[in-house]
Amino acid sequence: MADQYKDLELVNNIEDQRFELQVEGETAFIEYRPASDHYTLIHTEVPESLGGKGVGTAIIEKALYYLEQHQLKLIPLCPFVLVYLKRHPEWKRILAPGVKNI
To answer: This protein's superkingdom (predicted)?
Structure first.
């Protein structure tokens, strides 16, 4: 994660079922569906003005840390999250049982 995003707070917007990151007055987010022991990450969206600046990577990393800290497992459906996991296989440690082909 780029240094300029490390201190930004990840917001868990429970009402809208998404993690949010405020950057330069814009909101990047990852939509999720919660369950008792896991979250399914469905869609990541980064405003066009923030594209290519590492914001997508930052919000994914922060969301994965959140899941791990809350002892939740991950079901990744979002293509962007899947690509991230292929590049960072160490995060497979939080995958829900039965998740394969990553």
So the answer is: Bacteria
How far, in Å, CA of 102 to CA of 86, rounded? 6
H-only helix segments in 1-102: 55-69, 79-87
Q: Could you give the angle at the alpha carbon of 54 between the alpha carbons of 49 and 59, nearest 5°?
A: 95
Answer yes or no: pTM beyond 0.90.
yes
Q: With cut-offs at 50, 70 and 90, classify the pLDDT of residue 89.
A: very high
| 22 contacts 62 by C-beta, under 8 angstroms | no
Beta bridge partners, 27, equal 22
């590049």: which residue's tokens? 87
